[in-house]
Amino acid sequence: MDSRVIQLTAAAHKYGNLNIRSCGKSFFPPDAFGGSSKKKGLGVPITIKAQGLPQPIQTDIPTNAKGKPRWLFRERAWVKDFINSNELMKDNIITIERLNYRTYKLISDNNHTEKPQTHCVVEEKKSSVQNNSESLKGELIGIKQASEWATEYLGKTVTTSNISYLIQYGLIRKIGGNGTTQISKQELLNYYKSYNGKRQVSWNGQLGDDLNWALSFEQYKEAETTKHVHRLHPYKGKFIPQLVEYFLDSHTDNFKKHTYFKKGDIILDPFSGSGTTMVQACELGMHAIGIDVSAFNALIGNCKVATYDLADIKTEVARIMNSLENFLVNSHTIEFEEKLLEILYEFNNKYFPVPDYKYKVKRGEIDEETYGTKREEEFLPIFNKLVKQYNIKLLQDKADSFLDKWYLQHIRNEIQFVFDEIKKIKNIDTKKIVSIILSRTIRSCRATTHADLATLKEPIAATYYCAKHGKVCKPLFSILKRWKTYTKDTIQRIAYFDQLKTNTFQLCIAGDSRNINIFEQLEKKNAAFAKLAKKQKIKGIFSSPPYVGLIDYHEQHAYAYDLFGFERKDGLEIGPLSKGQGRQAKESYVQAIADVLNNCKKFMVDDYNVLLVANDKYGMYPIIAEKAGMKIVNQYKRPVLNRTEKDKGAYSETIFHFKQI
Ligand SMILES: C[S@@+](CC[C@H](N)C(=O)[O-])C[C@H]1O[C@@H](n2cnc3c(N)ncnc32)[C@H](O)[C@@H]1O
User: Fold this and answer.
1) Which of 44, 333, 372, 615 fits a 20 to 30 Å CA distance from 515?
2) Residue 113 in this model has a pLDDT that exceeds 50
3) Is 249 in the pocket of ligand 1 (CB under 6 A)?
4) Mean pLDDT rounded to a whole number for the chain
5) Is 50 exceeded by the pLDDT of residue 132?
6) Which of 398-402, 519-523, 639-643 holds the top average pLDDT?
7) Strand segments (E) across 250-299
8) With 70 as the cut, is the pLDDT of residue 138 above it?
């Protein structure tokens, strides 16, 4: 049965807003999404049979002014009755099951709660593993017994490995040692009732029981998955460092039974992207070679692993900051922006009071689209007057290149000014990292609305109603603030990573992995590394290849290509978005990835390990292995919890382990 879990927020109790974002769009029929108000048209209703309520509910799901789901049911009066009749509280978890195309069942698990069994209460038991004095109430059971009990309780197979995973990752406690591992049944029950536990059960149901939760890395916060240099520059499509670490490092567990690499080995990433593999190899005392067809991606990766003269970076960014501030003295942009912000602040306070405005929109008392457009129009003359008064030039005269089209004139002038200042930097490594700071800065200053940051639509040059923030927002008119933020952040990140680095080689080469002569190119860049590589050869690959028809990797950094003048090699990208996912695209993708592996084999030891991460929804990797003269010896299927995509539904990817035939 297809099901999702929903966590109750305070808004559910107050306004009847059940936050159904976790369900994802595909969980509902496409026609169930109606207009932003009843006037704009209702979607075709779905039926919800809510536990404890006498009648089924008929409702559609409203969208916002931009046509995006508002992730709640339009009919809401029944939610409070459901909450009351099931005695639910904030943060409780409920399950929504899809019974058929248009009918759903809402179940509260509150009444599953088991009373702790009294015949086997263990009090103040001291565990050799868990040496604490907490009292552990409840029945203690062994791993096998736990898997049998959980299988019965959930109505789904729970293996002993699943239970071991929960223990290993501290999700439930291990009691006892020396071969007599036990767990508390009550704790296991609590886990299955928690948000994470329910998500695990629900995702296993959708994606298969072979999902390996040890590889979900759910225990890591965002700050850890974007730690130190990993967040030096935005990049769409990178994997999380913990995944790389798991496969490179020397640990073994119930799932990873062998180690694949050791300190001093050379790891290859033929699709290096933003350089995640190189960074983690460096932390773990391994050498790494990256290859990427995009010169800008290679620059990002190399900047992450470079060793810097931090004092020199600080001096240069301070110099550029001073020059930029002087440059701005005559341009009035700063005063203009300050004045605009001041007037906007008053306007927004008056017409979009927090939290009243959003509250009324949610209850349907204000029609957001009509109201927002009206206020946007009302503010425009005020904005235009200020533009005239401060002599601000908005759009540029031409829109031929990305930099012409997507930047307001004053921003464009500042970008050019800083770029010219960067050219004066003598230390080449400082110059590169400061260029990366500028690139990160300008990426965040494109003339777009907040809602369209991820997928640009049309440049904007005026104030606009922003549905994301529920008020009138403005584009940026100066890069100064962002430049200050990112210089500080970059220096901190580099300094942090500096403490973790090992004395090893990492280098990303710009090239096409299908035919690059790795050692020859390495020789040109770093003779000592090339010498070591030729002697020792590459031990294996850890990489996430592009997938067919998903991303245009050059295009995502179009602004940087324009500014720095790197040559674009879009035509050499494997599986670009622009070529789609048709039969021909898939065939050439399979051949291209196999060509990469065949080329890389020439530089690897015979007993290599190749680990490739992909969501192989078209089942192409077995054919790729065959074409590359390799065999798949193992597959690790992992749930991907931290996706940036809007649809947060169940999603997995597989780590394929290839070896020589
Ligand atoms: C999924 S991304 C890799 C992301 C990387 N794992 C990270 O964490 O940043 C795939 C990369 O393959 C690169 N690529 C595409 N075609 C290539 C080719 N023919 N040779 C080398 N690299 C290529 C793309 O430019 C892109 O950066």
Assistant:
1) 615
2) no
3) no
4) 88
5) no
6) 519-523
7) 266-269, 287-292
8) no
Where b means 16+ CB within 10 Å and e means fewer, 81-102 reads ebbeebebeeebbbbbbbeeee
pLDDT at 644 over 70: no
Ligand 1 near 589 CB (within 6 A): no
* pLDDT of the residue at 178: 59
- How many residues are present in the chain? 661
Pairwise CA distance, residues 214 & 602, whole Å: 33
Looking at residue 245, the DSSP 8-state letter turns out to be: H
d(CA 305, CA 307): 7
Q: What atom in ligand 1 is closest to the CA of residue 276?
A: 8
Question: How many angstroms is it from 652 CA to the middle of ligand 1?
Answer: 20
Average pLDDT over residues 199-217: 83
Q: What are phi and psi of 249, to 5 degrees?
A: -75, 180
pLDDT in tens, 426-461: 999 999 999 999 999 999 999 999 988 877 888 999
| Contact in structure between 442 and 407 (CB atoms under 8 Å) | yes
Cα–Cα distance, 158 to 130 (Å, whole number): 24
Per-residue tokens: 646: 């809007």
CA distance linking residue 129 with residue 132, whole number of Å: 9
Distance CA 265, CA 280 (A): 13
DSSP 568: P
Chain position carrying tokens 């496969």: 247
Q: How far apart are CA 532 and CA 646, in angstroms?
A: 45
Query: Tell me: the pLDDT tens digits for 396-406?
Result: 998 889 999 99
Closest CA to 207 of 654, 610, 658, 661: 654
- Strands of 282-410, DSSP E: 287-292
